[in-house]
Amino acid sequence: xxxxxxxxxxxxxxxxxxxxxxxxxxxxxxxxxxxxxxxxxxxxxxxxxxxxxxxxxxxxxxxxxxxxxxxxxxxxxxxxxxxxxxxxxxxxxxxxxxxxxxxxxxxxxxxxxxxxxxxxxxxxxxxxxxxxxxxxxxxxxxxxxxxxxxxxxxxxx
Length: 157
What we know:
- By secondary structure, the chain is mostly helical.
- 71% of the residues lie in helices and 6% in strands.
- It contains six helices and two strands, in the order ααααββαα.
- It has a two-stranded antiparallel sheet with strand order 1-2.
- Helix 1 crosses helix 2, helix 2 crosses helix 5 (109-130) and helix 3 packs across helix 4.
- The longest helix is centred in the N-terminal third of the chain and has 38 residues, at 4-41.
- The two termini are 37 Å apart.
- This is DNA-binding transcriptional regulator, MarR family.
- One of its GO terms (molecular function) is DNA binding.
């Protein structure tokens, strides 16, 4: 016969497994949505190229090293993807004003416009999922996610 402590442990284990399932569903759905958004941006490119574009749109011009570190890609992959993006007119590179040997990569106006349009389509899908939620439910969800993300920000999942 299980005692009360064993029942609590079992209930907690089930909750943690359910949380894992839901997080996996969220990550999987997010990845699928990112791939679809990348295809909206330019279906001839690998989704990883759009990751670079999104990073540049969010944070501005950067070196290839910064892009590689920030997107968890190796430098050679970033260089290859940047070359493709450059050839298609989505990014440009300039000599760094601080270090004349360095190169700064930035979005062109065409790249910025296409990325914004693709992201708007992604946002429509996201907002469709929460459109029926009460404000209080959305606030609770945001607070819980914020707490989860802040507490885990020093390590990756």
